[in-house]
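Anyone able to model this chain together with zinc ion?
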Amino acid sequence: MSRAIDMASDREMVERDLALANIRASAKRITPLPTGLCPWCSDPTAAPDDVFCCTECAKDWQEHNERKQTAARINGMLRQ
Ligand SMILES: [Zn+2]
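re: yes, here you go
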């Protein structure tokens, strides 16, 4: 009896861990790092520490990302 409950909660924990790992993995993938090239238009950036070549690209990227993250959040909510 209690063993069945333990097994069920174990599976739940594994599924939650997997979901969290997926969220972390995708969050890492969509975070741009300064590479010397703008990740949005591939133009060289002014400084090596700059992620984007201009604020317009940063804004476009951010808007694009927010839409993607909102979609991911909605999908996650629907699955629960
Ligand atoms: Zn750019």
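The two ends are 26 Å apart (CA to CA).
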